Fold each of these.
Amino acid sequence: MKPYLSPIFSFCLLLATVLACKKDKDPGPVTEEEPAKKFVEILDDSLKGKGFGYSFAVYKKDQLIGTGAGGFHARKVEIREDKPVTPDTKMQIASMTKTITSAAFLRLANEKGIKTTDKIIDYLPKTWVKGPNIDLITFKDLLTHTSGITGMSENCRNGAFTENVWYGLKLLVENGIRKENHGSSCYQNANFGLFRVLIPAINGLKFSGNDENDALFAFRGYEEYVQKSIFEKAGVTAEALFSNGFPEPTFGYDYPYSEEYGFDPGDFSSTTGGYGIYLTANQGVKLYAALFSPENNAVLTQGMRDEIVNNGLGSYSAVMPEGKFSYHDGWWYSGLGIPNPKGFRSVWMHCPEDITVVLFTNALRNGDGLFPIRSDFYQDITSYVLWAFSKYKDPGRGKRMRQVDFHEYLEDPEPH
């Protein structure tokens, strides 16, 4: 037997070498980003070919894992040529702006030693008349819509342009609030519009008493701080934040599309704070991922991030079996109350697994003016993203989803 030992040994050695080489050539382990690409596929498959404009982008931690886009941001009726939406098409993000304003305030407050429970009255222009109970309002009251401000009509109907220009904010402060309304929830854009005045004031702006000049300098102070302390820290370059794309703006449409002229929201330089920023999906996802990924402290510390998410400062939450989701949606429209309103619906959402998604649409469905599509599982853009994430976590089987209306998971199901 001894003469055969050497050849057998040699054969085994050769076989081991071949197997080792084969192992080296096999695909490496799947990275943690790759499974989440299924989430991107679900979003794209359920949005494309529906006849409305959309764009979205998804991050896993600090890495882009996918984008999608479809439809048109401008059509023949406006510019004689249909212009496709891409992930680099500007959209009006509407109330998603509130989260940016909240983050800007928290950064500045941390720099200046200010607490969210401090009163706002000392930072309002000295020449503004302070109405009844304005001295009760704290920064946190504004950030959670519990200031007691109920709008010019005092019926808690959310105001837009007239209540958010300089003179509108000044009049709201002069009118004051009812003591019994302080601490009660009332969603008002003006709560965040006031930060266009407060952030520059905290940062040292001295108001002159000339309303026209003060309004301009306050806006510039707000814009400069947001750019330097939020966008630049997040590594996002975004010019002309408050104006629609030029020379080809993004129009808002109805759905199904009526072939009518689209809605151009225009410029928001005089009213921003609670709404008004324009971003692309690629810019938006990078920004909100920087704000809410626990691995990125370039913009916010973990303490600031927790304060926003846990206390609802310019954000909302949904808790599902998959985990906790944080978000803020945006809604900008023209003609609500008519059969075919036109406009924009948007959302940022930070999901379990440190996944951040930003989704924009430039069409609103006939009737209620919300996210263009709906199903038994979702009614609007926020519950749509929850549905898509749950479908990604339960691929193909849908055992749980057959019994779920994902809209019921939302902390505040109203559109914002």
Amino acid sequence: MTQQLNNQLFAFTKQFTDSAFKAQSLALKGLETVAELQLKTLEQQAKVSAEFVTEALETRDANGLRSLWEKGTSLTRENAERSVAVSQEILAITQKTAESLNALVQEQRQAANEAANEAVSAPIAAAKKAAK
């Protein structure tokens, strides 16, 4: 009886640690993807902003300032659009990660139910067998 309990406990612990490892892997993969996306966006915005500052420093007359004003407005709009697009991608990645974690939880719950049913039915079957 003790051996059976130990085996069940070991199996449950192994299943729990496997699931925890999978959940951690999924979460880290999602975080890595989000961080990579944000870094690429930051790099692109820094490059565009540096080009704008360089152009601003080279401006010498009123016409140059006027075109610089228009370019600055355009740059601001493009950066805002890029930020919105990146936010939407991050939301999609987060949602996909959450769905994967939910599937993992459902899998764990089903396995736990099966193990519980087996744990309850095994002693009953053994008792019936012993009674015969």
Amino acid sequence: MGSKRLLSHRELEVYQMAFDAAMEIFKQSKTFPVEEKYSLTDQIRRSSRSVCANLAEAWRKRRYEAAFISKLSDCEAEAAETQTWLEFCVKCDYLNAETARKLYKTYNQILAKLVNMINNTSDWILPSRKKR
């Protein structure tokens, strides 16, 4: 597993899943009421996109284990926040339960992959460069 010859964060399965989920949330949120534009709509779009942005940052911080883990932890937090907003979307009747359930399940899978990366940092951290 690990970072075997991956050249970019875009090649990570977890990134692809998070990006696709964020795009689905964007699509679905286009139908939310106008009064939610600067609250729920903005919040769920922001948190879902933030999972991807933090993954990109984590990828670039692989030289430093603590920084890598920190950014992955930020990803976890944003994914969990997105799940919370999904619950609000259903309770407010902005999103049907089946669509929300699928997205919620996807975020559970994303979270599992993030935890796996955190628990197996040696598979991901770049070897340190030795100065001559």
Amino acid sequence: MKQFSVILLILAISSNAFSQDLSSFTQVAHYTMNNTAADELGLQEDLTLINVVQNGSEGVYCNGKYIGNSTDASLVSTGQLDALYKPSFAVQVELKIDPDDGLNRPVLVCGDGWRYFGFYVRADGTWSPIFNDAQYFDQVTAPKAQPGQWYQLTMVYSGPDSTARWYIDGTYLTSVQGTFNRPADDGKISNTHYGIGSSFKGSLRNLKIFESDGIFSGSRQVKPSFYAEIFPNPVGEYLHLSVPNQRGGVQYRIFNSTGAEVMAGNLSAGDGIDLRKLRAGDYFLHLHSSEKSQVLKFIKK
């Protein structure tokens, strides 16, 4: 059973909520993967490349087989990176999903024994952040991934304000707030999720690592116009919401702590949600309109 230790605060999700500005970070590695496993900056040890196809400027191709049960499985892995234990760090890579796959796949995962930070692409093309070994699928409303197309993934963890953020091609996807559970000496980044026994299938190139002792300097914009509030919290039978009017109304989906959807529907300003059929526990309310999205955590008594 996965442990979900992260505490989610109210997250206002907007494509303009943060800019992808890494100018406050120092780059400490650049693995081009252009027929080489070496760090172009000469600061880190070579990548471990097992059973990958090296395609020059197209990077390396991974066959998607899991290293734990297949002798010809592809593995791309860094050595131990001190950057992953800095107060703040960022990881960036270019990826292209295999058109013939159709399975849920990790892209990059920080940590072998405990997957504290990473990114997943599900079979339907949904982007899925990983935080403290939990997958936050259905939290991202960006267009789905298209096989055979190159994307640039950027993952940023800002330790001073305990916030993880994910971007695709410079566009903000989502964020999770909480503190990493980072075991000592588990500072590798790889294409493999050892907890699930799954590996990326497709091409990777231009893996870059950044570090910083300060807070992430991405510019915070004003609070988006779509900003709902919920009450009471913890809640008994009915969850009340203050939801501004939005074109086309607001859709809601409720997920439990394991990521399973338990309720869904539509809301208008002043509406509440009948929770009498829900068991006691932690839940995540996803609100979506044609203009904005927001995720709120609540507790059912």
